[in-house]
Structures are given as structure tokens and as C-alpha cells.
Specification:
The chain has 142 residues and is of the alpha/beta class. It contains four helices and five strands. A five-stranded mixed beta sheet has the order 3-2-1-4-5, covered by helices on one side. The chain is globular, with a radius of gyration of 17 Å.
């Protein structure tokens, strides 16, 4: 596992409501006042030894590594979990991070997409709703 300098990546202070949330009172605040930031997995092309190709082949057939990025609302990295084989599910990478030092304070949460399971500290969209359709239509008219 690669360890990055704490000078490059700083975890957010969970006791402070992010300015990006406070600025949007009525739309984001107070609804997301306990959100720390988003997290997302992404696939990055990788070169691996011939015996490891099968493990690093993702569902699209490409050789990649699965990297979990943990961000703040100002789009700075607050954490990074690199090096997982491309065949690893995003949820498995997150579970490993939670079992190996990634801590979500009680009462706080990260926003994630529907590829992640809804669990303590991880807020995912409700699958039965198509979000933001009205807001997107209004924005297109402007």
C-alpha cells in the first residue's frame, strides 16, 4: 500500500460544517450539515505482471487498478486508497478502508453513489427516485 504525505492530503475537520454547505442555506444547509464530503471509486489504467492480469481486468475488459478517492466539498483529497485490482468492487475497497484505519465520526457521513451499500457513515441515493430532474430542466432554460 502506498502511503502519501500528510502535507498533501489532510482529513477534514468533522466538527466544522463545510463553507460550501453553509453558503447554500435553504438548499444544502441544514440538510447536509453533517456531511463530510463525497467519496468515489475510479479505475486507472495499470501495467501488471502477466500472472496478475486476470485480477486486474475490470468488467469492461481493461487492465486497471480500482482507486477510492475521499474528498472534501472544496474538491480537495481527504484520503486515497490506491492499488486495488480492477476486478475489486468499489464496496469491497471501501470496506477494506473502514477495517484498516479510515474512520467516519459518529453522526457524520460521506456521500456516495448507488454502487455503495447504505451503511452507517455512507449516504447513498434512494434507488426508487430520479433526483434533480426539475432542477436540471430549469437550469437548461436559463
Amino acid at each position: 500500500m502506498i502511503q502519501l504525505s500528510s502535507e498533501s492530503i489532510q482529513p477534514p475537520n468533522p466538527s466544522i460544517v463545510p463553507a460550501e454547505i453553509l453558503e447554500k442555506e435553504g438548499t444544502l444547509y441544514p440538510y447536509f450539515q453533517d456531511a463530510i464530503g463525497p467519496l468515489e471509486g475510479t479505475h486507472i489504467p495499470a501495467k501488471v505482471l502477466a500472472q496478475d492480469v486476470t485480477r486486474f481486468r475490470n468488467r469492461k475488459g481493461e487492465i486497471t487498478q480500482n482507486v477510492l478517492g475521499i474528498c472534501t466539498f472544496s474538491l480537495s483529497f481527504a484520503g486515497l486508497v490506491p492499488g486495488w485490482e480492477g476486478s475489486a468492487h468499489d464496496g469491497r475497497v471501501l470496506q477494506w478502508a473502514l477495517e484498516n484505519g479510515f474512520y467516519i465520526p459518529e453522526g457524520k457521513y460521506f456521500l456516495a453513489d448507488a454502487r455503495y451499500a447504505l451503511k452507517r457513515g455512507i449516504l447513498t441515493p434512494y434507488r426508487g427516485v430520479r433526483y434533480h430532474l426539475r432542477e436540471q430542466a430549469i437550469a437548461k432554460l436559463r
